[in-house]
Records
---
Amino acid sequence: MAMTAVRAAAAAGVPASLSRFRGALVAAVLGDCIGGEFEGAEEVPMESVMQHLNGLDDETKGNGILEYSDDTAMTRCVVQSLLSRAGFDEHDLAHRFAKEYSASPGRGYGSGVVQVLKKLSSPQINDVYQPARDQFNGRGSFGNGGAMRAAPFALAFPDLAHVKKVARLGAMLTHSCSLGYNGAVLQALAVHLSLQGALALPHQFISRLITEMEEVESEEAALRDARILKEAEKPFCERLHRIRDLMDRSKVSIEEVISELGNGIAALHSVPTAIFCVLHCLQPQESFPESYSGLERTIAYSLALGGDTDTIACMAGAIAGAHYGIEAIPQSWIRCCEGADDADVNAKWLHVLYHKSPQGGRSETEDKSENGTEKKTRAE
Ligand SMILES: [Mg+2]
């Protein structure tokens, strides 16, 4: 292992250290802000990526010059809701999403989610999951909008089963197709495992994700959606197997990664891609300066794939940040990105919440009946 990787791993410290929480939440913001430059680009030459990143060192530029987009706006809502409710509360979260959108609608939200957010802002809304279910003639969205904001669930609760459950519920507020919300489950799982130090053994990391997603994708709704959309029986598992194959190759081109995993706005075409970016950049790459930490490599590589760069870099950033910790992030990058300082503060509070709830805590949802209408029973 290269010395830089050893140093970064040492800096991140023990599993679930504060450094890892800070790294995850801050690097997610960085991926979003820095990745926005190339969003939608079909081809991104590595020279353009490096030019963009080198520009962040220019101290004459103002603080927070790179604005965050919907990825961070919605992630902030998740964080604030988890912290203020000390657990998952779908009504509170739905309300925060709607409020955030109406306060700042120009953050690059997709047109589909805007319809949902407008319905969620209605004071009459009873079932907060209904607007998402109504999307696309009742089929629901399979975009990556649920996955892009899933990291905080892994940072709030230590219990894996609970993380899977709330990541799914949190995504279903806007993405009711299993190919959408299971992308969020996979992203949260990846952050959870990374936080535990699991990326020290990359092949075991991917095997564990496959095992977990085998179970997740065995559900009837997932099997049915995959059939309807003519995907593999267990689409995310199939992609994770492709990642394992790519990891075993001595050389992988950007074109191969895009053709095998995708770089688009569907969760299936971006969450596995983000995971691959992290795994691929664990070792130094010729294309990047030797001085780069693994986290810097991961963000840079995510941008070079083009496509939905802000979201892929945001998701890859969260996973990588949970592995390398805050020390692997350059100060100049933090300075340039709107919301990075807030993320750092919030990460410290999530760290407290996580360590307060060894069993994952009880969520609002668990305190309610199936249809979610029963009165809250948990004391505030
Ligand atoms: Mg965005």
---
Amino acid sequence: MIQYKDDCVGCPPEIGCLGISCPYSNIPITYCDNCKQESTLYVFPDTDEQLCATCMERELNALWAGLTFQEKCEIFDVKEVKI
Ligand SMILES: [Zn+2]
Ligand SMILES: [Zn+2]
């Protein structure tokens, strides 16, 4: 998930925070939907779940484990050696 953080500490107090145009407000922070850690997020094209690299790799490994030998060969273009 992406949350926006107001991180303003630098706007001069005499003019106050610029609000919407303040470069320090609305800083996007990305959190993994699974482990809730702040991190770079990855998504599959057909889902909304946003995962960190660790959680995504676990998903990918699970998908990989579910593939047949033939499917794995196709992904890497592995061919049977013809004699
Ligand atoms: Zn500000
Ligand atoms: Zn995660």
---
Amino acid sequence: MQLRKPTLDDLHLLFGWINDPFTIRNSRSGKPVAWETHSRWFPEKLLDQNYRFFVGLTDDESPCGLVWFYKNADGIFETSLNLASNWRGKHISEPLLRSAILRNDPDSVYSAEIHNSNVVAIKVFRKCGFKLAYTQPNISTYVRIKKAEAS
Ligand SMILES: CC(C)(COP(=O)(O)OP(=O)(O)OC[C@H]1O[C@@H](n2cnc3c(N)ncnc32)[C@H](O)[C@@H]1OP(=O)(O)O)[C@@H](O)C(=O)NCCC(=O)NCCS
């Protein structure tokens, strides 16, 4: 899948994706993001070297989803994946996540926190080489360690 870096022109597009009801339900806070928060947070993080954003592009170059990584103090890339609702159910989330990891750094360690009820996301992350590392009642942490595991 083709990827591009988002720009400030994507501010409204990403705001819509973040506030999709299914995305909210599967987010850590479980709450919508206010425009005030998003319009401050996103431009700031675009300039932060520890944040890496990738927008997926379909064959006709439509933006279809976002992967973003946050490099934490341990050097682990905390991973989020969100597909535009009109592109869900088409099996493009796996190539999107896989491409973003390869483009970012295939040899680094990645982690993702996923609600235990989010069976679709768990499936996609597992296919990209993530394995269950730590589980809590509602949410579990998945980790991807080796490049070979995602191929
Ligand atoms: C997670 C997400 C990116 C997955 O994308 P998607 O387009 O919905 O999923 P896909 O169509 O690629 O399907 C992935 C797999 O889940 C399966 N699946 C779909 N719905 C399912 C369901 N209700 N139960 C079980 N499996 C299901 C699909 O069949 C597919 O498996 P397969 O390839 O073996 O057939 C998307 O649902 C999303 O944006 N969710 C909101 C944000 C989120 O939850 N992010 C994850 C935490 S970071």
---
Amino acid sequence: MTHRMTYCAHCGVHYAYQASGHGCLHPLNDSKYCPNCMAVIKVALDKVPKKVEKRWIPSTEYTKDQLLKLMDESDAKLDWLHEERQKGSIIAMPRLRRIGIPLIDTKTGEYQKTRYGTVNDKLYHISWWDSKPDEYEILTEVYWDLINDKMLENY
Ligand SMILES: [Zn+2]
């Protein structure tokens, strides 16, 4: 759980923004606006219908082996960036990785394997059980047009 003290972009009060951990998804927890201003913003925005949202959909573009290989190649590029950053030869953001929370089979104690990775600028999530290596699920994150109920290409 990470908290950061910051100043509200509207009213200027000093407040604690919770960047991670239980409670960080609270609708009034925001990195830019204090909870009081967020309450006003939320009431105003509740009147505006959403038009687009990010959504995870099943993907059949790659097999499990293909996707894991491509994710490894993508990670290798990030390893190189990380090493150069550590040496001080380039200025780059620290390496961040999205972490999936695996399911646990309480009968066998087996942990589900999950992995996020970006391939060709698209974010994928893959999950599988080592005891059933040929059964897996691949999802990709897309932008969804809520008015026409369809995926937006190249959004
Ligand atoms: Zn404020």
